[in-house]
C-alpha cells in the first residue's frame, strides 16, 4: 500500500476533495497558529514575505 | 512547485523539492526509511498481529536528507507533518490551502492559480494517480529500478514486501 493510500486511507481515488480538506484541518490543529501561514498561491508576496521575515 | 520557487526567490535557497532531488542521491533510501515508519504504524492500527516495527522518523532521519536546505515542500514531508514538527519545533509552516470557493473569482488578473478542492482533485488525477497507474501497469521507468524501495512506498507493492 503506497504512502498516499495510507495517509489518505485509500480514499484518494474516490474522495480526494474530502481528503485534502481533512489534511488542511489536521495541519491547522498540529501547528501553533503563530508558526503557521495559511497561504493561497496567487494571492501575492505580501503575507509570505511578512511571515518569513525577509 | 510555485511555493518552492517563491521560497528560493526569497532567499531560502536551496529549498528541497522532492522532484528536484538528484536521482543518484541517497535520499531515496532515506525517505523510504522515514515513510516505512508511517506505513507500519498504519499496519499496526489495522491489525495487532503485525508487531514488527520498522522505519524511523526520528529527527535525525530528516536531518540526514535535509541538511544544507533552508526549506522543504511537498510530499513526503506533508504526509509526515507530525514527525516534521517534532523534528523542527521552531520551524515555520506554510499550508497552501485549497479553499472551498475561490477568493479570486472576481479578480481581473489573467492567471488563475487558486486551487479549490475540485481543482486539486483534477490535478491529482493528472499527476500522482496517473503515474501510479502507469507504474502498476508497466513497471518502473528506466533508471528507477534501483530505487524500488522508495518507489514501492509511492507506487505500491509495499505491503507485499513487509508481510
In words, what does this structure look like?
The complex is a heterodimer of chains A (54) and B (163). Chain A has 54 residues and is mainly α. The N and C termini of chain A lie far apart (41 Å). The radius of gyration of chain A is 15 Å and the shape is elongated. Chain A has three helices and one strand, in the order ααβα. The longest helix of chain A has 15 residues, at 16-30. Chain A has helices spanning 3-7, 16-30, 46-52, and one strand at 36-39. The mean pLDDT of chain A is 86. Chain A has one domain (3-52). With 163 residues, chain B is mostly helical. Chain B has a domain at 2-96. Chain B has eight helices and three strands; from the N terminus they run αβααβαβαααα. Chain B has helices spanning 2-9, 27-46, 59-66, 81-87, 117-126, 128-138, 148-155, 158-162; strands at 15-16, 71-72, 93-96. In chain B, strands 1-2 form a two-stranded parallel sheet. The longest helix of chain B is centred in the N-terminal third of the chain and has 20 residues, at 27-46. Chain B is globular.
